[in-house]
């Protein structure tokens, strides 16, 4: 994509955007989701559910809404990020090879095995003190009124990762400047971005890979590569890029969505403040009720018959995670935020999110604890502004809060 001229890149994205917009005019819920113009996509998820737990959109994509079927698809090795020969589905917008989002299941299994002692659920506890330090310093520098996303949640994730990757002090401002562009990668795969953000994403990916490749023997890169093997250096680079591309936006969304859910219910907020043991349940319920990743795009590597439908090799199958996580056949009163619910766990966003999820959870837990302990009067102080053209991340751009 970096070799395309602005005219070629812009023209290609305009064509895809026009197709999605046209199909959405006739009421297809998946096309309406890809338009990503509504602040609340959940009515579109319900419309998609009415089409069946697996249906084919006029865009050509197969769309899965049911929780049990979604779990089956996500675990099925016949569905992966790319076709057997490395290709993408016809509906795929940008092939962002520099992002490592196209790695197959085998590669992700290797990355998780290689990083189990660094980024596994128990291993990330080693970063708790670091996260507390970064988060505490951010709060020290904020006044009574600030933006929960732009001033706290995102800088927290950026700051922690900069420390883990040992980004030189002189480069940290530029690293932070590129991170918002990197956070659009998941959305850009399925929803055409405007030309300037798309070009910024391509530039940010090139810069990040260049910076990391230039110093492979520092920070987490060195620790991952220390496991040895022929692919050690490439795997270390992949882990670092995925932490930036998927881990930072996921952490920011998880912090904001969890905090906003608590602030909307003062009684619940006070309950969690007095019982820190509930924080883990709050995060679990946030991952179900309003997850950082709303859909997962997969490709059939061969002809697959599932749920009575034949999915031809090379076809795109999109799992609507946010719809599946509110499946009324699984979750009682699914639209209600309830950390005490006992139903099945939420479905997450696929292989690369399994890699970055433990660190995102840890940072969200620390962030919520800091906000609850240090800002007892914290409340939302204005409307939430979400980034447009973000059907995967539903990313929060701004949300003003006040601690006065």
TrEMBL record:
It comes from the Bacteria. Belongs to the cytochrome P450 family. This is P450-derived glycosyltransferase activator. It comes from Streptantibioticus rubrisoli.
